[in-house]
Amino acid sequence: MKSALPLLISATFAFAWFGPSVRVDHENEPDRGCALAAITLGPGSWSSQPIYVAFEDDSVMGLAGSDIMFQKSTDAGRTWLPADVLVRRDACEPDITTDPNGNIYVLYYDTVPNRFHCVQSTDGGATWSSPTSVDDRARGDHGWIRIAADSAGNLLCAWNEGPLVDLHIFSSVSTDRGATWNPSVRVDDDTTNAGCYQADVFVQPGTNRYLVAAEVPCSDGHLGCYLYCSGDTGRTYQPGVRVDTFGGYAGQPHVVADMQHVIYDCTGGDAEARTWYTQTDTWGTLHFVGCSYASGAKLAISADGSVHTALMSHHSDGPYHAYYAFSSDHGVSWSDTELVSDDTTQDIDYPDIGADSAGHAYIVWQVNPISHGEIWFATNDQAGIAEQSPQQPIGVPPLATVIRNVLLLREATSRKPQAASSLLDIGGRQVMVLKPGANDVRALAPGVYFVREESQTVNPKPQAVRKVVVTR
């Protein structure tokens, strides 16, 4: 297990420290493999949010013979269902989301009859509805469908469609939880007919603005990254706004938002992110997120506004690995990347990420090759880490409290007169005796600490309480 400490950056913080990787799928046939995992979290407070994953089984991307499978964890990813649940046969390219009522939706490409379909589960993924057709055009090539839900439970999806060299971005909305879908609406305003690709979708909370990101041809002949917004539940879209400033190719976009900011990630050889301040609809400076990589970074945003990203990267000519970074200031600055995947001998591909209401990150990825690929998972939610770090004091449970840009640590004891709490450093040495109520931690260096309640008796018994992280 990795023993890396949480990452710290100036004036911002979100704890990392990923636990050991856990395999999600149960495919063990030598001539079968899994690929293209997508992740989402169900509604609920931290520690009660279920994790859902959809992926291809027996995957030869886009070819008949692939199946869409489903997996679920209710203990922060420590364990998964004992068997994969079949969602749909002869299908590929899944995406998954949940609505505020906890219903689960999986979108996928049906290789027969060459259409996008949606299925729904109302019982936590145990059973799935009959499929409904999403696209009403069924013309030419299809690909890269993505789905999101708004606060009312309406569903937004977008995809690329058309002749191979004349692809455009289309979207559709369902207002009856996936039972029917509105007529397709063209999103992009491209006039070059050179091909638009890789749509992504998100619904901005509080405003219910529908956001569609895509690769779109530019007048200079390169692909650029554009954002399209709809303020009328996906019936019409405003003209696209170019987000990147690369002189050449920019693509593989992903977009998330809170009520005041839209964070847009794209690649032009390196992962970059820009923040859009919705009050003025202008974009900030492009910020470097990671290092050279081969697949677009995925984003997730937690309830506190922290932005999390998963990307694939490699150094020198070695295998690609899964990495994680975070931003606590809406994408303006980013932590150093942290290695997520344990196995550094195999290539990984297509990482996807979710974040819970407490700011923990959950990442899934595909281990190549596709012919016998596997789906793996890791989290920095300490409840989902089965083992303790070798650097943790013995007996301290893997629970964390983050002290974000504050001066006081509030501590509660068992209220027994003989009880007291100690603050320990990473090596188990006492650095402070904590009193009930507020404790001034301004003299402490930023880092990882542990709170331990002790009985003031002749033979005190240490009783572990939690891990805390102090930052400026």
Rounded Rg: 23 Å
* Strand portion: over 45%
N/C terminus separation? 28 Å
Instruction: Compute the number of strand runs.
Output: 38
CATH class of the largest domain: Mainly Beta
The count of domains is 2
CATH architecture of the largest domain: 6 Propeller
Q: Given the helix and strand composition, which structural class is it?
A: mainly beta
Helix content, binned percent: under 10%
Mean pLDDT across all amino acids: 79
- Give the count of helical stretches: 0
CATH topology of the largest domain: Neuraminidase
Largest sheet: 5 strands, antiparallel
Label the overall shape: globular
Residue windows where pLDDT falls under 50 for at least 5 positions? 1-16, 386-400, 458-464
How would you describe the overall organization of this protein?
The protein has no helices and 38 strands. The protein has 472 residues and is an all-beta fold. The chain folds into 2 domains: 377 residues, Neuraminidase, CATH 2.120.10; 71 residues, Immunoglobulin-like (Sandwich). It is globular. The chain starts with 7 loop residues before the first strand and ends with a strand. The N terminus is likely disordered.
Describe how the helices and strands are arranged:
Layout: E1 8-9, E2 12-13, E3 22-23, E4 34-41, E5 51-57, E6 67-73, E7 85-88, E8 91-98, E9 104-110, E10 115-121, E11 132-133, E12 141-149, E13 155-162, E14 168-174, E15 185-186, E16 197-204, E17 209-217, E18 223-230, E19 241-242, E20 251-257, E21 261-267, E22 271-277, E23 282-283, E24 287-288, E25 298-301, E26 307-313, E27 321-327, E28 338-339, E29 348-355, E30 361-367, E31 374-379, E32 400-403, E33 408-411, E34 419-424, E35 430-434, E36 437-440, E37 447-455, E38 463-470
Parallel strand pairs: 32-38
Antiparallel strand pairs: 1-2, 3-31, 4-5, 5-6, 6-7, 8-9, 9-10, 10-11, 12-13, 13-14, 14-15, 16-17, 17-18, 18-19, 20-21, 21-22, 22-23, 22-24, 25-26, 26-27, 27-28, 29-30, 30-31, 33-36, 34-35, 34-37, 37-38
